[in-house]
Amino acid sequence: MSLVEVFETVDKNKDGKISCDEFVEAIRVFTSSITSEELENMFRVLDLDGDGQIDIEEFALGVVLGNVNVETALKQTFDSYDMDGDGKISASDIHFVLNRQGKNHTMEECVAMVQAVDADGDGFVDFEEFKTMIISN
């Protein structure tokens, strides 16, 4: 996934800028344990011109200076859902992780999540399908 694709994914309203709300929503996909204050500080660091939004240049500079590897971050997130380390995420893996995070979903909802992105129809989410799921959300 390119830097531009990541930026466009986070920029939900497609105005060419990432608002604080869009930023917070994107970060929360990766971790729910970060505080609102930490998120606001991260946003302020990236918002170099102080206009309350992050443009593509600020985003790119933040990624370069922060040495952020998007693929690595996605893989780490994938691995946190892959409970048995087999390279696939099952509906029960998703159910366990989401409920552990306090996001109460039924097993049926988790099955539907898997089915929504299970391109090869094997009943599991592999890493490529997981990336598709993150991008679409």
UniProtKB/TrEMBL annotation:
Fetch the SMART domains from UniProt: EFh (SM00054)
Q: Which Gene3D superfamilies match?
A: EF-hand (1.10.238.10)
| PROSITE patterns noted in UniProt | EF_HAND_1, EF_HAND_2
Please name the Pfam families in this protein's record.
Answer: EF-hand_7 (PF13499)
Q: Which InterPro entries match?
A: EF-hand-dom_pair, EF_Hand_1_Ca_BS, EF_hand_dom, EF_hand_pair_protein_CML-like
Q: Print the keywords alphabetically.
A: Calcium, Metal-binding, Repeat
Q: What region holds the EF-hand domain? A: 1-33, 34-69, 74-104, 105-137
Q: Does the keyword RNA-binding belong to this entry?
A: no
**Keyword presence, Metal-binding:** yes
Descriptive protein name: Probable calcium-binding protein CML32
According to its UniProt entry, this protein's organism is Camelina sativa
The organism's lineage is: Eukaryota, Viridiplantae, Streptophyta, Embryophyta, Tracheophyta
